[in-house]
Amino acid sequence: MMKSVLITGGTGGIGTALVKAFVNKGYHAHVTHTHKGSEFLDNWLAENQLGEDHVSFLPLNLNNREEVAQQLAALLESSKIDVLINNAGITADSTFLKMDVEQWDSVIDTNLKALFSITQPIARSMVKHGYGRIINVSSINGLKGQFGQCNYAAAKAGIIGFSKSLAQELATKGVSVNVIAPGYTMTPMVESIREDILDKIKGNIPTKELVLLEDLAKTALMIAESGMSLTGETISVNGGQYMN
Ligand code: CAA
Q: Which residues form the Ketoreductase domain (predicted)?
C-alpha cells in the first residue's frame, strides 16, 4: 500500500521541497496550509509539477485547536499517516528589549504550542497501527541561539525537548521521533533578512552557501525510511555553521 506523509506548512519554503521529495518517492502527501485560496493552490501544484492525485490539502490554522482536532479526526478515520513532519514555522525577529508580546506569543504558539494539537491525534493513530515516523523541524538557532530571536530560539529549542521525551514514550511502539535542525536555507523566510545581515551570515558558513532544500528533503527521507534505532536524534543540516 502507498505510504502517506502529513506535512504542516507544506506549501512554504522547506515544506514544498519536502512534499516534492516524498511524492517523488511514491508517498501520498497531506499538506496543511493556512486557508490559502484555490488559485494559489492550483498555481502551487502546477509550479511544482505535482498532480492532485498525489497531494491532498488540509486547510487549517494550526493555532485553532478545534479546527485541527476536527480536520484530523476526519482524516484519520479514512487514512493512515505513516510519516508526520511538523514543519510549519514563522519568525517575528526583534531584539528582546524591543519585542512586543504579540511577537512572543505568535512565534511560541505556531512553532511550539501547535505541536500538541497536531501530534497527539496522529501519534495515537500511529501507535494503534504500530508504525510511524515523526520528524520535527527545529533550527540551528534552537541549538545556538540567535541575536534577535529569543522567541524563535526558545520555540525551536522546545521542539527538541519535546521530541526527546516523545521518542522515549513511543520507542517500543514502532514510532520514532527525530528532529532536523536546518541552517540558513534559501526560503522566503531567510530572503526577508536584511541583505547586509544575510551576507555576514553566509560568510560564517563553512560551505559558504545557504543550505540546499534538496539536502533537507534527503535527510527527511532518510529518517522516514530508517528503523527504530534512529530515534530521539537531532540531525543538523547547516553547511557546518554550527556543530554540536
Ligand atoms: N551579535 C551582536 N550584535 C549584533 C548582532 C549579532 N548577531 N546583530 C546585530 N547586532 C548589533 C548591531 O551591530 C547593532 O549595533 P549598534 O547599535 O552598535 O550599531 C545593534 O545590534 C542593532 O542591530 P540592527 O541594526 O540589526 O537592529 P535592528 O533593530 O534594525 O534589527 C534584528 C534587529 C531584526 C534582530 C536584525 O538584527 C535581524 O534581522 N537579525 C537577523 C536575525 C536572524 O538571523 N533571523 C533568522 C531568520 S531565518 C530563520 O529563522 C530560519 C532559521 O531557522 C535559520
A: 3-186
